[in-house]
Structure formats: C-alpha cells, structure tokens
Design goal:
Radius of gyration: 64 Å
Coiled coil: 5-120
GO molecular function, one term: single-stranded telomeric DNA binding
Protein name: Dna repair protein rad50
Shape: elongated
Keywords: Coiled coil
Helix content: over 70%
Distance between the termini: 214 Å
Length: 223
C-alpha cells in the first residue's frame, strides 16, 4: 500500500510538472499567436497603402498622359503662328528690359538724392551744433550779465533784485537804473568838483588880497 501511495505521489508530481510545462508552452503559443495577429494587421495596412499608392500612381500617370497630349496639341502650330508668338515674346522681353532700365535709372536717381540728402542732413547737424554752441555762449553771457547786475546792486545799495536769471525786460530795466545812478554820481562828482574849484579860487583870492593888504601896510609903515 505504501508503495502504491508513493507511486501515486510520483505520478502526481510528474503530472504537475507536465501541466506546468504545458502552461508554459501555451503562453509561448499565445505570444506567437498575438505576434502573428499583429503582423497580419501590419501586412493588411501595408497592402492598403500599396493599393492606395497604386491608385494614386495610376491617376498621376493618366494626368501626365493628358498633359502630354494637351502639350502636343498646343505645339501643333504653324510656322506663322510660331513666328507671331516669337515676335510677341521678343516684344515682351524688350518691354521688360525697358522697364528694368527705367528702374535702374530711378534707382540711380534715388541713390543720388539719398547722397544729397545725407550731405544736407550732415550740414544741418553741423549748423544745429553751431547754434547750440552759440546759444550756450549767449546763455553764459546772460548769466554773467545778471550776476554782475546783482553784485552791483548789492555793492551800491540800489535795492533788492529778483533771483537770476533775469528776463531781457527785467535786465534792461535794471541796467537803466544803474545808468541813472551813474549819471547821478557823475553829476554829484561834477558838483563837488565845481564846489572844490570855487573854494580853491576863493582861498587863493583871499590869500592874494591878504598879501596885497600886507604890502600896503608895510609900505605905509616905512614911510
């Protein structure tokens, strides 16, 4: 009995191993079947693409044949028609060459005008720079003028003035005030000079009279 049980166990193990091997074989077969199905699908797609390309190629070939036929019909012109077409073509070429020549002349004129405009612009830039320099110099002179006026008013107590820079009207008014003040000073100096000369003459005359009286007095005493 034990031997029978052992034999049954061995058979069961053997069957188990065989089943595992069969399962592995089945999986391999399934994989091959799946691969085959995928390959068949790809083949069908390729066949469809080949069929489409064949139809497209046939259509293009037919269209090409039609174009060749139409071209052959167009070329069935007489010599007179060909000469007429040639003359028209040459006239067209001559017209195009004339237009090209005209465009070249216009381009040359444009380049000449552009060069002249560049030169004019450079001259304007130089003139603007010159004017800016002159304006800066003029502004510097105005600042110097205003500062001088301000200092003169402060030095001679001529009154308060506005803050610089002065407008032309304000500076002209202040300059006129300075001129008026200078005229007053000159007049005052002239008056002082006249008074000084008058005093000098008066003193000189008095001294002369005193000397004259002294001489008379001395002469009388001698007598």
């Amino acid at each position: 009995l034990r031997e029978s049980i052992a034999q049954d166990q061995e058979k069961a193990e053997s069957l188990k191993i065989q089943m595992q091997e069969l399962e592995g074989s089945i999986q391999i077969v399934d994989a091959k079947v799946h691969h085959t199905e995928t390959t068949l699908k790809d083949l069908r797609k390729l066949q469809e693409q080949i069929a489409n390309k064949t139809v497209e190629r046939s259509t293009l070939f037919k269209e090409q044949q039609k174009q060749y036929a139409a071209l052959a019909e167009e070329n069935e012109d007489t010599d007179e028609e060909l000469n007429e077409w040639k003359n028209k073509f040459e006239e067209r070429i001559a017209l195009l060459e004339s237009k090209i020549s005209k465009l070249e002349r216009e381009m040359n004129d444009t380049e000449t005008k552009s060069s002249f405009l560049k030169q004019t612009i450079n001259e304007y830039i130089w003139e603007i720079s010159k004017l800016q320099t002159e304006a800066e110099a003029h502004l510097s002179l105005k600042t110097e003028r205003d500062t001088t006026i301000q200092k003169f008013f402060a030095r001679h107590n001529l009154g308060s003035v506005l803050d610089i820079p002065f407008s032309n009207e304000v500076s002209l008014s202040l300059i006129n005030r300075i001129k008026s003040r200078l005229m007053d000073l000159e007049k005052d100096m002239e008056d002082k000079k006249v008074n000084f000369l008058a005093r000098c003459i008066f003193i000189h005359r008095n001294e002369h009279e005193k000397r004259y009286d002294y001489n008379i007095f001395t002469t009388n005493n001698r007598c």
